[in-house]
Amino acid sequence: MNAEAETGWPEAAVDYVQAIADTKLLLGQRYGEWMLKGPHLEDNISGASNAQDEIGQVRQLFRLLKQQGVDEEWLESERAPEEYANAPTLDEEAENWPTFVVQAALTDRTAWLLLDAIDHDDFTGMVQKMGEDEYFHLEHQDGRLETLAESQPDAVEAALERYFPQILTFIGPATYDQASDPLVNAGFTDRSVADIRGALHEHYVELFASTDVSVPPLDGDVPDPDQWDAKRRRTDDGHVEASVVDQLQGVSNKEYVIE
After folding, report:
1. First-to-last CA distance in the chain?
2. What pTM, to 2 d.p., does this model score?
3. What is the pLDDT along the chain (259 residues), one digit of tens a residue?
4. For residue 1, is it within any domain?
5. CATH number at residue 217
6. Which of 42, 101, 139, 175 is 20 to 30 A from 201, alpha carbon to alpha carbon?
7. Which long-range contacts (CB under 8 A, 24 or more apart) does 75-78 make?
8. In a domain, 3, yes or no
């Protein structure tokens, strides 16, 4: 592992971890929104557990970001919606159950692949522990996707077509291969953006291989590297709703805070 903790991470690494943390923060929010609306009690219990896990992981990632000089007040409660670097798949609440499962599954697996690629001493042990939590998240999601692919294949395929380009954009340009990926070159990650894109696509191609659901192609032109903002991992100025940010920051509850 690269031992750069005492001298600080590269700026691009701070942005990378910020994007993972913000995505997990919004994942916790979306899981919470659906934890009483799933079709089965098992889904509701899983959603509540996943939400708790994600927020716990966010706390740990925020702690590391603060150690790298990210302002605590800004991080926790002073950001505008456009300053969150979450995956664009989470900008809006899903309108139905199949869409939510695809939204959560794609985003959760992507966040894990990005996190697992980090090769730095500051993350020793922590990523392994998070991986234990994520194993159960991802296994449950894959099982639900397989079931929905049998019962509602059109809905699953429509959600994949909607979200897959967005999650590829979040991962990053296909041109970031092992030789050119800045974070691989800096020694902060051990897998390139191109490798992570391929791993995500291959997983879902295999998962849906025996169903009527087709996975969108691995489009090398998404995102356009000339338009991609590496800080927010987007090509546009989209962002989560202001009302959701208010919930994340506890705006409505601030009057009850005991100093």
Report:
1. 41
2. 0.93
3. 333 444 589 999 999 999 999 999 999 999 888 776 766 656 666 767 788 889 999 999 999 999 999 999 999 999 999 999 999 999 999 999 999 999 999 999 999 999 999 999 999 999 999 999 899 989 999 999 999 999 999 999 999 999 999 999 999 999 999 999 999 999 999 999 999 999 999 999 999 999 999 999 999 999 999 999 999 999 999 999 999 999 999 876 555 445 5
4. no
5. 1.20.1260.10
6. 42
7. 76/249, 77/249, 77/250, 78/249
8. no
Is 180 within a domain? Answer: yes
Structural domain span for residue 67: 8-256
Q: Reduced to 3 DSSP states, what percent helix, strand and coil does the chain have, rounded to the nearest 5?
A: 65, 0, 35
Residue that is written with structure tokens 């692919």 in the block: 149
Residue with tokens 């087709």: 214
